[in-house]
Amino acid sequence: METKIYKASRVAEGNRLFPAEIHIEETEIMIKFPSFFSGKSRHLVYQQIEGVNIDTPMIGYSTITFVVGGEKIAGHGFTKSEVKEIKQICSKKMLANSPRSQTQLIAYAISAAAGNSNNSRQISIADEIKKLKELFDGKIITQLEFDEQKAKLLNS
């Protein structure tokens, strides 16, 4: 995969002279925050990314925030479509580079939805299906996997 570069708008607040850049690479994301004399750049390996959040206001530019080791690293000034595309690419890369298999992730999500953690609260099948739908909408599981797991839940 060749590097894909997203450049924040100069019109966005805080980006007038030196807009932020996000470089999507095969094994990591590089975020550049240029400045007049020096700049900062952060390299985020997909396996270390804990989450990707986006804020897409009705009017104005969007913000994407990466969570790594509890630290939040945000870039502002991207279009709504850009941050959604970046999040989708990151989610796929995080899953592909994860030490867990996709089946393990699905099983983990279902067990978490079912309340099999230390707090043994009862969650309805509808809640479990809702959790599966979130995984499907986030493109973490396929339609086939969603349908299979949903059928298992409904038949249990």
Protein topology:
Layout: E1 4-7, E2 21-24, E3 28-33, E4 40-45, E5 49-55, E6 62-68, E7 71-78, H1 80-96, H2 102-114, H3 125-137, H4 143-155
Antiparallel strand pairs: 1-2, 2-3, 3-4, 5-6, 6-7
How would you describe this protein?
The chain is of the alpha+beta class and 156 residues long. The protein folds into two domains: 4-79, PH-domain like; 102-155, no CATH class. The chain contains four helices and seven strands. It has helices at 80-96, 102-114, 125-137, 143-155; strands at residues 4-7, 21-24, 28-33, 40-45, 49-55, 62-68, 71-78. The strands form two sheets. A four-stranded antiparallel beta sheet has the order 1-2-3-4, with helices on one face. It has a three-stranded antiparallel beta sheet with strand order 5-6-7, with helices on one face. A hairpin with a 6-residue loop joins strand 5 and strand 6 (62-68). Helix 2 packs antiparallel against helix 3 (125-137) and helix 3 packs antiparallel against helix 4. The radius of gyration is 18 Å and the shape is elongated. It starts with a strand and ends with a helix.
CATH class of the largest domain: Mainly Beta
Helix and strand pattern = EEEEEEEHHHH
Look at the helices and sheets and give the structural class.
alpha+beta
Low-confidence stretches: 115-122
Assigned CATH architecture of the largest domain: Roll
Biggest sheet layout: 4 strands, antiparallel
Widest β-sheet, arrangement of strands? 1-2-3-4
Mean model confidence by pLDDT: 79
Secondary structure: number of strands:
7
Query: How many helices does DSSP assign?
Result: 4
The fraction of residues in strands falls at: 25-35%
Radius of gyration: 18 Å
Helix content: 25-40%
CATH topology of the largest domain: PH-domain like
